[in-house]
Amino acid sequence: MIQVENLQKHFTIHHLDKTLRAIQGISFSVEKGQFLGIVGKSGSGKSTILKSIYGTYRPQSGAIYYESESFGNINLAEATDQEIIHLRKYEIGYVSQFLSVMPRTSAFELVEQSALETGKSPEEAITEAKETLSDFDIDESLWNNYPNYFSGGEKLRLNIARAVVKKPRLLLLDEPTASLDDASKLKVREAIEKLKLQGTTLIGIFHDLEFMEGLCDEVFTMQKGVVNS
């Protein structure tokens, strides 16, 4: 599904005339329906990998080959902006620990809008929003509420629901259990297990090693911008 080859990314701090190396020589592959977990200390380069795959960052060198339904085997590191936008809309999802939404937009409307973005009819979008919110254990009494009033676990599951309603082939998870209590972590774990059963390919960043136990097919450890497998 995805193959990363010798990926390198650095950032230039112009006012300090300094270059910071984020990742160097990163290589790995993930088969369809598999889950790769990435662990490591803060600042080790974990999020840079995900953001390079998602197209938020452009790496200085290396390749990210993705088996796309729309474009075939495409190198995401060299994809055009239009190709990246299309893939985000139809094939690749991204979930972070933060929920950034428009004010006065209900949880149901957020998931419905995500479904509409993929070209679903209004009727289809409503049906899929209901099914997805239920699948991720967001109580129906919350559907018409604003997410600002949700608990941390509810916000994360809503974030996942927004991504999953698009039925992505590849889902990137950036610290989806950060600052959650044990009960909320369990709900997120159950949501991820459902995605695996549906055949979604996943790459996730975690600090909580206990959470990952038995969930990932392979785990990489990041240290100072490189992978120790």
Automatic annotation (TrEMBL):
Domain ABC transporter: 2-229
SMART domains for this protein: AAA
Record has Nucleotide-binding as a keyword: yes
Pfam families, sorted: ABC_tran (PF00005)
Domain of life: Bacteria
InterPro entries per record: AAA+_ATPase, ABC_transporter-like_ATP-bd, ABC_transpr_LolD-like, P-loop_NTPase
GO molecular function, one term: ATP binding
Keywords: ATP-binding, Nucleotide-binding
Assigned GO CC terms: plasma membrane
Keyword Ribonucleoprotein: no
PANTHER family in UniProt: IMPORT ATP-BINDING PROTEIN
Protein name: ATP-binding cassette domain-containing protein
Organism: Ureibacillus yapensis
